[in-house]
Amino acid sequence: MSAPTGHASSRQAVLECAHLVRRFGERTAVDDVSMRIAPGETYGLLGPNGAGKTTTIRMVCGLLRPDAGSVYVAGRAMSTAAGPAKQLIGFVPQDVALYPDLSVRENLRFFGRLYRLPRRRLERRVDEVLHLVDLGSRAGDRVDSLSGGMRRRLNIGAGLVHSPTLLVLDEPTVGVDPQSRHAILESVHRFGEEGMAVLYTTHYMEEAERLCDRVGIIDRGRLVAEGTPRELVALVAERDRVRLTAVGNLTAYAKACRRMARIEGAARSGEHGDVVELVVKDARSLLPDLLDLAHEQGVGVRSVEIDEPDLESVFLHLTGTALRE
Amino acid sequence: MSAVLAIAAKDLRQRLRDRSAWVIVFLAPVLISALMALAFNNNSEFRANIGVVDLDRGPAAVGLTEVLKSPELADTVHVRAYDDESAARRAVDAGGVHAAIVVPEGFSAALHGGRATPLTVLDSVDYGLQAQLARAVTESYVAQVNADRLSVATAVAAGASQTDIPQLAAKAALLHLPEQVRAQGLPDDPLKVISYFGPSMGMFFVLFTVGFGARGYFVEQQQGTLDRISAAPVGRGALLIGKSVSTFVYSLAGLLTVTLVSWLAFGARWADPVGVAALSVAMAVCMVCLTALVIALVRTEQQAQGLASVLVFALVLLGGNFVFASGSTPMIRRLALFTPNGWALRGFTDLGTGVRGWDAVGAPLLGIAAFSAAVAALTAVLLRLRRTT
C-alpha cells in the first residue's frame, strides 16, 4: 500500500485477511491485499470494475482458494476450518442469486436451512428478515413475480437469515433504481449500527463515503490506500478540483495551465469537449490567474465550479484514473 | 445431513413445479405405454376374412377349406367362397375379405402323380398380417400335400400297382407331418407387449432426467445460487449428494409410476415385484451417474442439453427401447449389452415371461452396476482433470 493511513481496531477482528494473492494464469487479480474489520464496522472496498474487489470477496467467503495469504473470520481460518468460518458469514452476491420458481419464504427458508438453523428459530428468523426487507406481504409469492428492487432486497435478506457476524455485500446497488438503492443503503447502515461487521464493495464513491467507517481503495489488484473517508481525503488536502466550462482552443488552454505553478493536472473533458478539469492547490486564490490566462488565450469562460476534495479526488490522485472509467 | 436434505428437497420441489417435467417423466410414458397396449395387446380382437376360390373341386381343395374352418382357427379366420379369381380379387381390393386363396384346377390330381400346380394368395397392402396368416396356412397345407405326393410316389417306386394309387393317396392324406416343435429352456408365459413396453417407455423418458439434472446444475451456476450454497457451511460432498438424491428420487418415482400404471391399468405382468423394484432402483442410480458425467463433460447449459439428448437417443436406440430385443439384429443385441437400459429390458423381459428372482435380474443388475461404475469412474477422472487445469 502506498498510503496506509487507516487504523485497525484494537478489538478482536471479525475479518482478518493477510497478504492475499490470487492469480488467473499470467494475470494477478489480487496482489498482497490485507485488511481487518472490527465488530460493528462497515468497511468499504472501493475500486473500479476489474480492480479485484469480487475476487477478494470470493476468497473471503471461501469460494476461491488464495494462491497466498490467509483469511480468518472471528479467529477461524478459512483454509482449515471453512465450515465454522462460513457459518459466520452472510454472503450477498452482486447478481440476484435466488430461485425464481420458489416463493420468497421458500428461498429464505432454504438458505437458512443450509446454515443448520433449528426449525423454530429458522421460522422466526425468516419472519424477521421478511419484515426487515419489507417483503412480509409478498412472502408467498414466487420470486419471478417480484420487481427488480424487491428481488435486490430479498437477495440481501437471504444473506441475513442465519444472523451472520460478518455481512459481505458485493456491489449490491448495481443496476438498482434510486428508491431501492436508498432503501438498501439505509439497511446496510442499520446493520452496522446494530453491531454487524460489514464488508461492502462498490465503485460508487458516494456510497463508500456515506456508509463506510473505513474504506480501502483497490486498483489493479492492489490496496493502494486505506483509512476513514476523512483520513483518505486528507491525502489530497488543499487540492481542489476546478471545472471550467468554456469556448475556444481548450486543448491549448489546458496545456498552458499545466505550466502554471500549483496546478497538478489539467485535461480537456466533458461530453462536448467544452470543459477543462484541473487539480490545483488552493483554487480560490488561483482563480484570477486562471481567468487571466483564459483571456490571454482567447478562451471565453462560461462557468467555473470548484469541488472540495472527496474520495473521487483521492482515487484520481492515487491512481491517475477515474473510478468510473 | 440437514443440508443434503435441504438441497434435495429444494431440487425436487423445483422439478415438481415444472409442468414439462411432469409431462415427460410421468404422463408421456404412461400415455405411450397405454397406446402400445391398445395397439398390440388385444390379440383376441384379431380377425382375418379369407376368401377361397375352389377351381379344383377335388378332395385336396376341400381339405384346405376344412383346415381354414378348423376349430383352432375358428376364432380368428372367417372363410368366404368365391366362384372365380377375378371375383376374389375384387373382394380383396374392396376390403370385403383381407386375402384370398386360389386353388387351381388339377390341384388334387397332382396327388396322384400329376403335374404340380401352385396355389395363389391374393393380398392387400392394407391387411398385411391377415395376408401373412393366409400364406402361412397355405404353405403349411401345401407342405402336407407334397408329403402325401412323396409317400405315394415312394409306394409306386417300391412296386405298388397304378390301380392302387387313389387308395394310397387317401391313406397318405390321413397322415400328418410331424410338425410339432417343443422349445426347451423357455419359460411358459408369453411376454405381454405392455410388460415390455411399459418399463421400456418409462426408461426412455426417465433418461431425460439426465438432461434436467445437468441443465439444472448449470442454471444454478449461472444464476449464482450455486455460489451462494458454496458460501454456506456445506461441503462439496453434501452439495453433490443432495443433487444426486433428488435425481435418484425423481427417476425412481418416474419408473415406478409407469410400472405401477402398466400393471394396474393395462395388465402388465412380472413374476417378481422385488425384481422390478431392484431394476428400477439400479436404473435410478445409473441416471445419477449419467447426470454427473454430463456435468463433468460440458461447461454450459446448452452443451448439457445437447449432450444429454445425444446420450438419451444413443442409449434407447442401442438398448432396444423401441423394438423387442428378439426383433433386432445380432449386432444390435450385442450392443444392447453395453447399455444399462438394454440390461434392464432383459431383466423385465425375463420377469415378464415368468422367470423369478436372481435368475431374472441377477445378470441385468450386474450389467447396470458395471455400466454405472464405469461412468462414475470416468466422471471422477474428468472432474479431477478439470480441477487441475
Automatic annotation (TrEMBL), chain A:
Domain annotation ABC transporter: ranges: 15-245
SMART domains in alphabetical order: AAA
Record carries keyword Disulfide bond: no
Species: Streptomyces luteolifulvus
A GO molecular function held by the record: ATP hydrolysis activity
InterPro entries in UniProt: AAA+_ATPase, ABC_transporter-like_ATP-bd, ABC_transporter-like_CS, P-loop_NTPase
The protein's name in its UniProt record: ABC transporter ATP-binding protein
Keywords for this protein: ATP-binding, Nucleotide-binding
Family annotation (Pfam families): ABC_tran (PF00005)
PANTHER family: LINEARMYCIN RESISTANCE ATP-BINDING PROTEIN LNRL
Taxonomy, superkingdom: Bacteria
From TrEMBL, chain B:
UniProt KW keywords: Cell membrane, Membrane, Transmembrane, Transmembrane helix
Annotated InterPro entries: ABC-2_transporter_component (IPR051449), ABC2_TM (IPR013525)
Transmembrane segments: 21-40, 196-218, 248-268, 274-298, 310-332, 361-383
Keyword ATP-binding: no
Highest taxon above the source species: Bacteria
Pfam families: ABC2_membrane_3
PANTHER family, alphabetized: MEMBRANE COMPONENT OF ABC TRANSPORTER YHHJ-RELATED (PTHR30294), TRANSPORT PERMEASE PROTEIN (PTHR30294:SF38)
Protein name according to UniProt: ABC transporter permease
Phylogenetic classification of the source organism: Bacteria, Bacillati, Actinomycetota, Actinomycetes, Kitasatosporales
